[in-house]
Amino acid sequence: MAEEKKPGLFEKGGKLYWLHSSIDAFDTFLRVPGTVTSRGAHIRDAVDLKRVMILVVIALVPAALMGMYNVGFQSALATGAAWGFWKMFWYGFLRVLPLFLVSYIVGLGIEFADAQIKGEEVNEGYLVTGFLIPLIVPVDLPLWMLALAVAFAVIFGKCVFGGTGMNIWNPALLARAFLFFSYPSKMSGSEVWVHLPKGQAAVDAFTGATPLALTDEAGRHTVDALNAAGWDWWSLFNGLVPGSVGETSVIAILLGAVILVWTGVASWKIMVSAVAGGLLIGWLGQLTGATDLPCWYQLLLGGFAFGTVFMATDPVTSAQTEKGKWIYGFLVGALAVTVRFWNPGYAEGMMLAILLMNTFAPLIDHCVVSAATRRRNGKTQTA
Amino acid sequence: MVFLRLIFLHLNMSNSIDLKKGLDIPLKGAAARKVIGTAKGDVVAVCPEDFAGFAPRLLVREGDRVLAGSPVLADKSNPDILLTAPVSGTVHAVVRGEKRKLLAVTIDPDPTCQYVEFGPLDPAAAGPDAVRDLLLKSGLFAAIIQRPYGIIADPSLKPKAIFISSFSTAPLAADSDFALGGEADDVQAGIRALSCLTDGGVHLSVSAGNYAKSPFHKLEGAILHTVSGKHPAGNVGVQISHISPIKKGQTVWTVPIVLVAAIGRLMRTGKLDLLRKVAVTGPAAEDPAYVEALPGTPVSALAAIGEGVRVISGDVLSGKAVGRDGYLGFFDNQITLLREGPEREILGWAKPFRPKIFSASKCYFSWLTPGKKYDLDTNVHGGPRAFVETKCFADVTPMDIFPIYLIKACLAGDIEKMEQFGIYEVLPEDLALCDYVDPSKNEIQAIIQSGIDLMIKEMA
Questions:
Q1: What is residue A4's predicted lDDT score, i.e. its pLDDT?
Q2: Does the beta-carbon distance from B359 to A45 stay under 8 Å?
Q3: Among the four A55, B26, B46, B371, which has the fewest Cβ within 10 Å?
Q4: What is the pLDDT of residues B91-113, one digit of tens each?
């Protein structure tokens, strides 16, 4: 005889069913759902969004590790301490860890609450966003500011639109923009990029400014100015310079780029065209005398590489059409460097360039799709 | 002579379509090229649900005698369109489902089949009206699918052209060179008959890979196209979009090659003979090979069905799950047996390797084992999410459309946008691979079908 099974605590009809969004999130995190296909294709690919998101996180790991090491390295440099490799890394790890904790606890908390209210499954999009945010802020950012920014980004950048996949702007960049405009003193200048141990002052020669800020101030002979501060192109490339936690090491970012491009999670077209756009404007800047910095330095400075690889390529907020991706990426790169040259207020243009192009991505797609549809319908008319 | 022949071949080859996009899913269980018998079921069913847009009116009662070719059901909106019995026998039962919906009329078959004698017909001499009448009377008009919308054809229309794909690229699909190789004369007669019904000609596409060996490349009276590429290159919808895209107000007809042969046999012999070689395939099939069977034969007569196995009439992407008590579909010459996959894999998505599951994306490592065939099951491998990664749709859709925009237009129910983005050109089967590859696990075919249903409603 078929006995009617009593519903479990969290199953429909159970006492704690209202908690099912959160319980499902943990449950499906540990075990793949047992759902079988009911309509459409009877078999499905192994890949799901959890896999896609975890791959992005893996691609971010080199930049994060390098960032942690660099935090320790810069502190040692600033205080003149003679630390070994592991000491520097451990020091940086302890400084960066709270940023990650706050980012994930606040962000995931809101995501869970949101899913709970809507009665939907929890999106895994925040796995990536939560990893990105600590990497694009200064290490000394007060944690309460970070918490506020995360809350703003998740609520107003994602939840109000309906969650991952529906948002217009990259949520991580939105968090950064929030901080940038609300607490500019904690997000720019020469004080915030390097963590100094309590009670210790920097050694005299140490400036604490980022190389990018320096290029803005230097005026002429920028390369010499960078060299004078102790940075050649190689240090910009390997990332042992002050800056946001994860943005400095172009090597580590390139490692991530290889993973993203190979797995197809991020579009190489956007990356290539962003680099092309950045180089072109960098070159024009040289021609017009806006700077005397060789254009390829633009790719090594500031958040250009990080933004190009991890932020501009966000599949949700970037252009969706293949032609649109070329246009979108190019404009991201071009605008970022344009802002660097011709906007004295902001040393860094990447964040604003990407957010602006996020806004225009649907328009770019609209133009691409309309043009293709017109061509297609013209073609079918004559057939 | 040889030279001339080469030139001729070259001219023929000039209608070649080379498709770069698509995906062949490496599924285990392809049918061996051998026929292991003829499936005889206790009953043979006529299932009106096989025919999209057909509203059945019952013409027989339980206990009535029917011959192969006797009318069983008529379309309520167009009573000329008939569904006929594929065998002779006694009407066994009228099977109804919820709200008395007519699901099947089952027939107890006679030991030896007797046919309604329609009399042979020479299409060229008899003319289009006679051909149409014979097709309607015999029930084979229902074999014609009308596009847009993929519904049963309207006999009062003259289509722009008729399209036939001589091959299928769907996973484990029957190899038509083998399954229909011996029926080239029937196919030829079928093409002659169909070409009466249109001024635009009959377009026949042949797989470029075995073009020279194909029994179909010498057929006359059809405009030949060679097509190469991965699935869905063999889908007639994809081929139409490259040969002559359907624009608003146009209709084209398509006929599956299996039924072109049946139409040809009808013209040559005057009998309705729907017997076909059916590929029994799939990872859960014990002995994947070909079985001769009529449409409406119980699937249990075609293959041994184990526990926890899903039976699909058709292929694994667009076929219909008919259950172990189901019947072979009218249009199908393949059944696929697939393990259900309700097991929950621990930390599946986080494992570096999942060697048992194929992934077309490089997020897993299936690309390391390109020749491997997989025993896939019906597990979805994830929960439903909003669209995130959408390039994958375009990668498996070799048509001049933007799949994600069409899908979103269907979701929004925006008629104008659906038209713009190509709803007239597609059937769910043409976007079936989108179902498969989507990491967000959306039901793309269902979405497209809902768009098509809306179009039918609004355009009526």
A1: 56
A2: yes
A3: B371
A4: 999 999 999 999 999 999 999 99
CA distance B234 to chain A (A): 17
Domain count, chain B: 3
**Cβ contacts of B388 on chain A, cutoff 8 Å:** 49, 52, 125, 164-165, 315-316
Lowest model confidence (mean pLDDT) among A78-92, B33-47, B156-170, B279-293: A78-92
Tokens of A33: 């759902």
A373 part of contact set with chain B, CB < 8 Å: yes
B403 exposed, middle or buried (CB, 10 Å; 0-12, 13-18, 19+)? buried
Q: Please name the helix (run of DSSP H) or strand (run of DSSP E) that holds residue A11, with its range, or none.
A: none
pLDDT, position A14 = 66
Instruction: Write the pLDDT tens digit of every residue in A124-145.
Output: 889 999 999 999 999 989 999 9
Chain B nearest-CA distance from A316, in A, is 5
Average pLDDT over residues B354-375: 90
Contacts of A24 in chain B (CB under 8 A): 383
Q: Mark whether B104 and B185 lie in a shared domain.
A: no
- Out of B219, B244, B269, a domain closes at B269
Return the residue of A nearest to B244 by Cα: A383
Domain membership of residue B316 (yes or no) is no
Tell me if chain B has a CB within 8 Å of the CB of A227. Answer: no
Is B346 within 8 Å of A320 when comparing Cβ atoms?
Answer: no
Predicted confidence (pLDDT) per residue in B43-77, tens digit: 999 999 999 999 999 999 999 999 999 999 999 99
8 Å CB contact of B376 and A43? yes
A vs B: CB pairs below 8 A: 202
Mean pLDDT of B307-321: 94
Position B118 in a domain: no
Inspect the interface and report whether the beta carbons of B342 and A36 lie closer than 8 Å: yes
pTM of the model: 0.90
B98 and B235: one domain?
Answer: no
B136 and B250 inside one domain:
yes
Backbone angles phi, psi at A153, to 5 degrees: -65, -45
Confidence of residue A1 (pLDDT cuts 50, 70, 90): very low
Instruction: Please tell me whether residues B152 and B238 are part of one structural domain.
Output: yes
Do residues B171 and B138 make contact, with C-beta atoms less than 8 angstroms apart?
no
Cα dist. A19→A25, A117, A118, A122, A126 in Å?
10, 10, 11, 12, 20
Q: Tell me which residue in B346, B380, B439 faces A36 most closely, judged by beta carbons.
A: B380
* B102 shares its domain with B197: no
Rounded CA separation A275/A316 (Å): 20
Q: Across the interface, do A320 and B404 touch by the CB < 8 Å criterion?
A: yes
Q: Does B247 reside within a domain?
A: yes
Mutate to test the interface with B, among A27, A48, A316, A326 (most CBs of B within 10 A): A48
Residue A382 contacts B, CB cutoff 8 Å: no
User: How distant is the Cα of B392 from the closest Cα of chain A, in angstroms?
Assistant: 9
Q: Where are the alpha helices (DSSP H) in B249-304?
A: 257-269, 299-302
Domain span including residue B80: 44-109
Over 70: is that where the pLDDT of A302 sits? yes
Nearest residue, CB atoms, B432 vs list A31, A33, A41? A41
pLDDT (tens digit per residue) in A184-222 = 888 877 777 888 777 777 776 677 778 888 777 766 677
Residue B8 lies in a domain: no
CB A39 within 8 A of CB B445: yes
Please tell me whether residues B206 and B151 are part of one structural domain: yes
A369 at B interface, C-beta within 8 A: yes
Pair B99, B139 in one domain: no
B137 plus B213 within the same structural domain: yes
| Region of residue A5 (left: phi > 0; alpha: psi -120 to 50; beta: else) | beta
Q: What is the pLDDT of residue A380?
A: 53
Min Cα distance B46 → chain A (Å) is 23
A370 CA: distance to closest CA in chain B (Å):
9
Q: Quick check: bond before A171 cis, omega within 30?
A: no
Distance CA B133, CA B130 (A): 5
* Residue B382 pLDDT: 87
Contacts of B428 in chain A (CB under 8 A): 40
Query: What would the pLDDT profile of B14-29 be if each residue is shown by its tens digit?
Result: 588 999 999 999 999 9
